Amino acid sequence: MATVIILPKQGQSVESCIITEIKKKKGDSVKKGDVLFSYETDKASFEEESPVDGVILECFHQEGDEVPVLLNMMVIGQPGEDYSALLCEEVSGKEQEVRGKEQVTVKAELSQPINQSANQPSSFVSPRAKNLAEKEAIEVSQLTGTGPKGRVIEKDILTALENRPKMTPLAKQIAAQEGIQPLGTGSGLAGTAKSTDLQSMSNTVYGVDYEDKKISNMRKLIAKAMHSSLQNSAQLTHHLGADARRMMELRKKIKKAIDAGTLTTNITINDMVCFAVIKALKKFPNVNSHFLDDTMRLFNKVHLALAVDTERGLMVPVVRNADDLSIIGLANQFKEIANGCRKGGIAPELLAAEAGTFTVSNLGNYGVEMFTPVINLPQTAILGVNTIIPRPKDLGDGVYAFVPYIGLSLTYDHRALDGGEATRFLKQIAIEIETLEIEF
What we know:
The chain is an alpha+beta fold. 28% of the residues lie in helices and 24% in strands. It folds into three domains: 3-108, CATH 2.40.50.100; 127-214, no CATH class; 218-434, Chloramphenicol Acetyltransferase (2-Layer Sandwich), CATH 3.30.559. The protein contains nine helices and 20 strands. Helix 7 (269-283) crosses helix 9.
């Protein structure tokens, strides 16, 4: 009996995944345990293994497709086996309904000859896409299809509409008749393109001097989270410098210990700053919290989140119960979660904003002297760590000297914390840095 392979759901917040590689094509023989395809969420990468022996009878999606979870991906069975009764077309949500209808249309026409390359503009258009393109005056010859073998599907038309300004009825009529399109924002109300805003696309050299690149699934979620954070909170940033001489002395001792073989863990400046932050959070419990509209959730333990830059985008994994760790344990945990993020193997639950109680984002390695980090809601604050620069300091008796200072930028939610409390907390971090004591 044939077996339907669906796209698994990875985590409660995951609604769709990007198919990164199809390892078994239609007609390929597979054994139980063989990897069928790989996919990624906005947080991690996964591989789906075959649960049975058989032959790939159908593969419904291609590499690069964004597929809703629980949707049919493949069918495995015996050659010639009828599997139509097994297909589940029940998907939830408007977008999934559209995708399901497109899938049926594509399957019905897969036998038609297609000569276009998947990477070139295609005149092979699905009926739904053709009708929508004619209605909205979209020139399909200018589009690159994302359907099977370069087929232009309805999603491609919708994407083109998102990137084109709204048009007046007259402008739309002229565009359809003459094959011209508006470039940039229109001169009408709310940026609507009028007939006078239409420009010929016949000059392929100068007509289009840009490239529309679809953003990744992760970028979409990051953008949504950042916009929501700024829109739904009262954020304010305070900047302060801390004398970094103590940390730099400790770094020299750490390097010597590593060279001598008495220390195997490389404790970085960032590890020391985070260790100081944890100590400060224990003294200011209101900062180690979530703001939930009319409620403050104060945590007894510190679940520290650390921003990690990866090729796929920014990730913010959490070290739970960080206040129970020594400086060596904390450094090892940071290295482990950072490697997990970069390799795509981090547990999704450790990337949820609700999992952390406070976040540290370090741009010091890039030479950034000051910046304004954005709070990872519902957390009430985030610390930005800047580069170390020399600054003049009064050493007493009228003697001044340049000493290394590390910049600290605290963004806090003014709904949850008053400016005075936030300032005292930031000052406490500086004190912990300047008087840091660690054992290794």
